[in-house]
Write a structure and sequence with these properties.
CATH class of the largest domain: Mainly Alpha
Number of helices: 11
Distance between the termini: 27 Å
Strand content: 15-25%
Bound molecules: zinc ion
CATH topology of the largest domain: Arc Repressor Mutant, subunit A
Order of helices and strands: HHEEEHHHEHHHHEEHEHEE
Strand order of the largest sheet: 6-5-9-8-7
Oligomer: single chain
Structural class: alpha+beta
Shape: globular
Length: 270
Amino acid sequence: MQKRSDFLSHYDNEYLNNLASGIADYYFPHGRIEPEIISIKNNITFSYGEYGACFDGLIECEEQSFHIFINTDRLKHGYSDRARFTFAHELGHYFIDDHRNALLEGRSPSHSSFTGFVRKNRAERQADYFASCLLLPETRFKAFCFRKKFDFKIIRDLSKFFGVSISATALRFCAIGNHPIMVVYSHNNNIKWYWYSEDFPFKALKYGKDRLPEDTVAGEYFELQRQPKTVQPVFAMDWFNIWNSSQAELPFFEQCIFNGKHCLSIIWEE
Ligand SMILES: [Zn+2]
């Protein structure tokens, strides 16, 4: 279960965002960021291959030269959103000073990475955060949202425009978007992690980390196999731990992305 406090320090976030934004704006001042090109411009070689189930991506350093491996066995193909994110994550291990120095000095074994915010390890979290800041640069992201009334379409449009998965885009929106949202990722009727904007009105889920509430769109997906494609109304008490009964029926919206045993919920106040 991911809690805000398990994540990176404020200093980490600032440092990584500045570092990644600088690189994004330098190489790609407009439009989509291409990790391959950044790699080429920095003399980092790379290869795509079918490397089994051991890792999503890997960066190796031999005699001062870096090489990135991207595993298409786990990432469908080299141009999938996940492959791009993994590539950006591996670039993080190169651009973050501590990571690069550790690789250069042989202090760190080559990083084998599973990307997408699943690792607890701090270096992996830093590389994930670097990747999201690189692929979704703050200034452009904010300009894209500016003066738009929030609905799920903004997240989907941002995801398409920048070539980043909906889940990574929604997490970035929690950090720098212009409307408070909560993002809950469930797998097989269990909550895996959740995240929310600083100004989201509720911070605690109804059953905490223990159980996915049944009267939510995500809960009904697993319990009743319902899969609404459009946004659905829910009440605050369906999702959140309510202390004050006057808040129980506050109206919220939930939109889900369903994928087999996976469900991603985006929740926002009406
Ligand atoms: Zn890694």
